[in-house]
């Protein structure tokens, strides 16, 4: 029937997008390669969905009641607990606690290159697809708002600036800072720091495009240059830790 063919035609672009994204992401899967580094562990979930034929990323705003980074934009996630089997477990448990996302509703694709936060936690980004119909139920003690951003915004932003940042160990790095005007919430969200770092890397992996701003990667060798960057950052922190002992 005409209706049936139209429906499958509508469905196909999303499937194609997902299939392409899955394929690209799996090439960048680090698994548990960095799990033996002697740093406290944390994980975040990067929830991808297809909306109106485009990939979108779900983000949260931290509750103003929180002691650390209140009101900042981040991904669902947090510190590893003894009962978590791995980073994937941590990310899924935290996403359920923070926004009511059931673990079985996430199609986990991969773990990307980790980052190191201000507290020197090793933070692993776990990428998964969720349905675009997902209705978040934010835990008010932890999350004040939930919103989505088109993934391509993190390679072709309308409002972007970069900040230079020196870590406590003296390592100089670039911080991406995006301002996203959300029509649905009628307000702007500021996305920066490690959250922006993960979003940019995710967009670079999936789209394979040169962004409209400078990045600290060799885009022709994204995997190896991202690993070099990470190991340099880790080495600078580890050296400092050793000198403090």
Automatic annotation (TrEMBL):
<comment type="subunit">
    <text>Monomer.</text>
</comment>
<keyword id="KW-0378">Hydrolase</keyword>
<keyword id="KW-0460">Magnesium</keyword>
<protein>
    <recommendedName>
        <fullName>Peroxisomal coenzyme A diphosphatase NUDT7</fullName>
        <ecNumber>3.6.1.77</ecNumber>
    </recommendedName>
</protein>
<dbReference type="InterPro" id="IPR045121">
    <property type="entry name" value="CoAse"/>
</dbReference>
<dbReference type="GO" id="GO:0005782">
    <property type="term" value="C:peroxisomal matrix"/>
</dbReference>
<keyword id="KW-0472">Membrane</keyword>
<dbReference type="GO" id="GO:0003723">
    <property type="term" value="F:RNA binding"/>
</dbReference>
<comment type="similarity">
    <text>Belongs to the Nudix hydrolase family. PCD1 subfamily.</text>
</comment>
<dbReference type="GO" id="GO:0000287">
    <property type="term" value="F:magnesium ion binding"/>
</dbReference>
<dbReference type="GO" id="GO:0015938">
    <property type="term" value="P:coenzyme A catabolic process"/>
</dbReference>
<keyword id="KW-0479">Metal-binding</keyword>
<keyword id="KW-0464">Manganese</keyword>
<dbReference type="InterPro" id="IPR015797">
    <property type="entry name" value="NUDIX_hydrolase-like_dom_sf"/>
</dbReference>
<keyword id="KW-1133">Transmembrane helix</keyword>
<feature type="domain" description="Nudix hydrolase">
    <location>
        <begin position="39"/>
        <end position="173"/>
    </location>
</feature>
<dbReference type="Pfam" id="PF00293">
    <property type="entry name" value="NUDIX"/>
</dbReference>
<feature type="transmembrane region" description="Helical">
    <location>
        <begin position="189"/>
        <end position="208"/>
    </location>
</feature>
<dbReference type="GO" id="GO:0010945">
    <property type="term" value="F:coenzyme A diphosphatase activity"/>
</dbReference>
<dbReference type="InterPro" id="IPR000059">
    <property type="entry name" value="NUDIX_hydrolase_NudL_CS"/>
</dbReference>
<dbReference type="GO" id="GO:0030145">
    <property type="term" value="F:manganese ion binding"/>
</dbReference>
<dbReference type="GO" id="GO:0009132">
    <property type="term" value="P:nucleoside diphosphate metabolic process"/>
</dbReference>
<dbReference type="InterPro" id="IPR000086">
    <property type="entry name" value="NUDIX_hydrolase_dom"/>
</dbReference>
<comment type="function">
    <text>Fatty acyl-coenzyme A (CoA) diphosphatase that hydrolyzes fatty acyl-CoA to yield acyl-4'-phosphopantetheine and adenosine 3',5'-bisphosphate. Cleaves CoA, CoA esters and oxidized CoA with similar efficiencies. Preferentially hydrolyzes medium-chain acyl-CoAs and bile acid-CoAs. Has no activity toward NDP-sugars, CDP-alcohols, (deoxy)nucleoside 5'-triphosphates, nucleoside 5'-di or monophosphates, diadenosine polyphosphates, NAD, NADH, NADP, NADPH or thymidine-5'-monophospho-p-nitrophenyl ester.</text>
</comment>
<keyword id="KW-0576">Peroxisome</keyword>
<keyword id="KW-0694">RNA-binding</keyword>
<keyword id="KW-0812">Transmembrane</keyword>
């Amino acid at each position: 029937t005409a209706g049936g063919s139209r429906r499958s035609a509508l469905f196909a672009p999303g499937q194609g997008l997902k299939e392409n994204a899955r394929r690209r992401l799996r090439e960048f899967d680090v698994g548990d390669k960095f799990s033996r580094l002697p740093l406290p562990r944390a994980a975040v979930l990067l929830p991808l969905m297809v909306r109106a034929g485009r990939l979108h990323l779900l983000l949260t705003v931290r509750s103003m009641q929180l002691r650390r980074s209140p009101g900042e934009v981040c991904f669902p996630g947090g510190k590893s607990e003894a009962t978590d089997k791995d980073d994937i477990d941590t990310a899924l448990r935290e996403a359920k606690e923070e926004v009511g996302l059931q673990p079985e509703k996430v199609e986990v694709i991969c773990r990307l290159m980790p980052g190191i936060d201000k507290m020197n936690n090793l933070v692993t980004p776990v990428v998964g697809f969720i349905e675009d119909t997902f209705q978040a139920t934010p835990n008010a003690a932890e999350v004040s708002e939930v919103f989505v951003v088109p993934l391509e915004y993190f390679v072709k932003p309308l409002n972007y600036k970069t900040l230079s940042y020196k870590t406590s160990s003296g390592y100089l790095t670039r911080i991406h800072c995006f301002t996203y005007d959300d029509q649905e919430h009628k307000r702007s969200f500021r996305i920066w720091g490690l959250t922006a770092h993960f979003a940019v890397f995710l967009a670079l992996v999936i789209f394979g495009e040169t962004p409209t701003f400078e990045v600290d990667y060799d885009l022709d060798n994204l995997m190896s240059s991202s690993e070099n960057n990470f190991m340099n950052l880790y080495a600078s922190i580890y050296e400092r830790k050793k000198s403090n002992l």
